[in-house]
Specification:
- The strands form four sheets. Strands 3-2-1-4-5-6-11 form a seven-stranded parallel beta sheet, with helices on both faces. Strands 7-10 form a two-stranded parallel ribbon. The chain has a two-stranded parallel sheet with strand order 8-13.
- The longest helix is centred in the N-terminal third of the chain and has 22 residues.
- The chain has two domains: 196 residues, NAD(P)-binding Rossmann-like Domain (Rossmann fold, 3-Layer(aba) Sandwich), CATH 3.40.50.720; 93 residues, UDP-galactose 4-epimerase, domain 1 (Alpha-Beta Complex).
- Helix content is 37%, strand content 18%.
């Protein structure tokens, strides 16, 4: 029986979740990982394979029930499990609502059974095409089912807080990037697309003119933000989590050093994402530590991780985003 404080990480074999596991282990926690390995990879946790304080369970969050031994004695539950991406959510909205809303309810009930504090991984996509810099009190305008499902998951957390007095906090992630980001599945995050193209010596597919900016935050800084949201005495709070320093796609291409080719701009995509992180830095004393240049260099050092990722080109991207233009176009 471990004497360490216990934390549960749902989606803990995934991109951000696995870095959360690393940080918790480094801070002396015993960690229980829940992941169905649809988006996550056991390889992301391989370095913890012989650590008795890291337990992994291959299970869908919708199969979790109150009384699950995975949650016994848990102090914190970091809830990252769910499904992402814009286009697949438009094509299969029922699955998104089921995994991201109903799945969250299962996690909340398991946490409620043991009185654990829940830290919910929310999405800045809830703001839609937002005014920038974007504060937490910005109007909510989800534009596609993924955004809606993540926001309704957040609402469920606060309902459980109000109704059952369950301690919860929500962290709205802007643009997380870093090692172990997803390599498979739908056309999506720019880093995975670009890195695979670099490995194949293909031009990088830049959407529009590349001047659009994203509030990229390196994944270890994301994990630190979540730990701060857990260890604070504050509950019932929402915090934006970004670097507060948007970077252009053209700057990313410059750092990666590849050739580029332009593909059509997409409707419903913001020109800028920019987190106002005043609330987080003021209330929790958190600051980003990894610069964009340092973060990109760390990814390039580990570029072989993306060797088996799908290789996208303008034609396959156009086909994969047909639904996007259909539903979000004018």
């Amino acid at each position: 029986m471990s004497m360490h404080p216990v934390a549960v990480v749902t989606g803990g074999a995934g991109f951000i979740g696995s870095h959360m596991v690393d940080l918790l282990v480094a801070r002396g926690y015993a960690v229980r990982v829940v992941d169905n390995l649809v988006g996550g990879r056991e390889a992301n946790l391989a370095h913890h394979a012989h650590n008795p304080d890291v337990i992994f369970e291959n299970i869908d969050i919708r199969a979790l029930l109150p009384g699950s031994p995975l949650f016994a004695d848990a102090r914190y539950v970091f809830h990252f499990a769910g499904i992402g991406d814009i286009v697949p959510s438009m094509e299969n909205p029922m699955e998104y609502m089921s995994a991201n809303v109903q799945g969250t309810v299962h996690v909340l009930e398991c946490a409620r059974a043991v009185g654990a504090k829940v830290i919910y991984a929310a999405s800045s996509s809830c703001y839609g095409l937002a005014d920038t810099p974007t504060r937490e009190d910005h109007p909510i305008r989800p534009q596609y089912p993924y955004a809606l499902s993540k926001y309704q998951g957040e609402q469920a957390c606060f309902h459980w807080h109000g109704c059952y007095k369950l301690p919860v906090n929500s962290v709205r992630i802007f643009n997380a990037y870093g090692t172990r980001s997803r390599t498979s599945g739908a056309y999506g995050a720019v880093f995975g697309v670009f890195l695979r193209q670099m490995l194949a010596n293909k031009p990088l597919t830049v959407v529009g003119d590349g001047t659009q900016t994203r509030d990229f935050l390196y994944v270890t800084d994301v994990a630190r933000g979540f730990l701060a949201a857990a260890e604070t005495d504050r509950v019932g709070q929402v915090w934006n989590l970004g670097a507060g320093r948007p970077q252009s796609v053209n700057r990313l291409v410059e750092l990666l050093g590849g050739n580029k080719i332009h593909i059509p701009k997409r409707p419903g995509e913001p020109d800028c994402t920019f987190a106002d992180i005043t609330k987080l830095t003021t209330e929790l004393g958190w600051r980003p530590e990894v610069s964009f240049e340092e973060g990109v260099a760390l990814i390039v050092e580990n570029i072989d991780y993306w060797r088996d990722a799908p290789l996208w080109d303008p034609a396959s991207i156009a086909k994969a985003t047909e639904t996007w233009f259909k539903y979000l176009g004018n």
